[in-house]
Amino acid sequence: MKKLEPKRIDPEISWKIVKRGLRERRITLMALAQELGLAASTVCSVKYTNYPSIEAAIARRISTVPENIWPDRYPDRAGKIISNSDQESDT
């Protein structure tokens, strides 16, 4: 039996969530990078690369958790990838 791979979330969608959330709070990526002591390019790398510490910092700044922004990067406790459709069915 062929193992099904979890559906990947388009990084552009997650990135739009990040940028909108930061913009609403008048925070720039450069300011966030300086706050974290990182280069802006390192902070921006989270768009395509799993970088838990930066993901957590961004999520805190926009009052959410990384799982809400990057659900395909964070499996639930049973090891299942959380998808947006799973979240919608719970409400």
UniProtKB/TrEMBL annotation:
> Which Pfam families does the entry link to?
HTH_35 (PF13693)
- List each coiled-coil range: none
Against Gene3D superfamilies, the record matches this protein to: lambda repressor-like DNA-binding domains
InterPro entries in UniProt: Lambda_DNA-bd_dom_sf, Ner_HTH_dom
Which key words tag this protein in UniProt? DNA-binding, Transcription, Transcription regulation
Domain Ner winged helix-turn-helix DNA-binding per the UniProt entry, residue ranges: 19-83
* Homology family: Belongs to the ner transcriptional regulatory family.
Q: What is this protein called?
A: Helix-turn-helix domain-containing protein
What is the originating organism of this protein? Pseudomonas schmalbachii
